[in-house]
What does this fold into?
Amino acid sequence: MSARFDIALYANGASHHVCDLLDALAGRPQVGAVTLITEAAVGEDRLKLGWKGEIVGAYSQIEAPTAAEVEAFVAASGEDSFHIFVGMRHLRCVTEGISACIRHGRRFAIMHETRVSEGLAGLARYVQSWLTEGRIRRHGIVLAIGAHGPKWFLRTGYRPKQIFPFAYFIASHAPVAAAPRGQGGPVRIGYVGRLEDAKGLPEVLEMAALVQGPFELLIVGGGTWAPACEELASRDSRVRYLGVLPVEQVQQFMSTLDVLVQPSRTVDDGWGVVVSEALLNGVAVVASARVGASACLADPVRGRIVPPRRPQALADAIGDMAAGGAFSQEFRNLRQQWALSHLTGDVGADYLLQIIGSLHSNVKRPKSFLL
It folds into this structure.
C-alpha cells in the first residue's frame, strides 16, 4: 500500500451523513484526493425537511456522471485507491462504479443499512440479496450501518470477516448551553424527523397523555401527521409543533432538550442521525429496538431501548430517567463525552482508515467503533 491513497464515495446526493466523514478523511496525511460522486443534487423531498441544497467541504465533487465517466474515473484511480458505495442498487453511479471496480481490481466497500425484512416484501428482499449479490460477496466488504446491518449481511451470505459495524459519522458542533431546568422543572421531550406512521408518530402523540410529571413535548418535522401534531398542540399547552427547521438549526434545538424520542416501527430507520445529534449535545435518547442507532444506548446513562408501538414504554422510560437524575448536567456531560469519542466524523475517519489498513496487511481488524 502506497504512502498516500485516494478515496471516492458514491451516493445519491450530498448529505451530512457522508460529507462530514469525507471532510475528516480529507485532512488525514495518508489520504490523497477525496471525491464525492453523486447521482443528483439533493432531492426536493429532503429540501422540504430542512436539508441544505449544497454542502461544501475539503473534497471534490462530481455530480450526475455518465456511465462512461464513472468507468474512466475508476480506471484512472490508483491501484491502492478505495471506493465506497452508499447502496448497491438503483443508482447508476453506484451500479456502474461497482462493476468498474471489479473489472479494474479496485478495492471497494458497500456502506449499507439493513434492508427492511418485515413481511413478504422482506422475504423477497432476502431472496434477491442471495441471488444478485454474489459478485459483491466475492470482491467487496460491507460497512454495515446500525444495530441491524451486520445481522442482515450475515444472513445473506457475507463472511464475518467482510462485515464491519459502521455508522453515519457527523461533525460535532459546539452545543448552545441549555437553560437549567431546575429541580422539578418540566422535562423537555423532543421529536425530530418525518411525521409518518413508520417513524412511530402515533406513539409520540399517545405518549403525551401518559408521561407522569411536568413536561414539554416539542415536535419538529413535516409529513402526514403534521395536522394531528398541530391539533394536539392547539388543545394541550404542554405540546408545541414547530414545523420544519433548517438543518443548521437542529443542533441548537437539540441542545435545549432533555430527551429525544425515536420510536420507529420498522428497521427502515437504518441509523437515525438525530440520535447522534442528540447524544453529541448531551441529550438522552429513548429509541425503539428497530432504530439502527439504538446500538448507542447499551449504557442506560445514554438512554433507553423500548419495544416499537408501545407509547406507555416511551412514557415509562422518560419517567424512569427523570427519577434517576438522568437529565442533570453531570449526565449530559457523560453522554456528550461518549458521543465525541464514538460518533464524530474524525472518529469515523480514523476507524475507516484502520479498516482499510487491515485489508492491505496482516494487522488485526479493528474493534467496533462502539467499543
Notes: The first strand starts at residue 5 and ends at 11. Residues 40 and 64 are 5 Å apart (CA to CA).
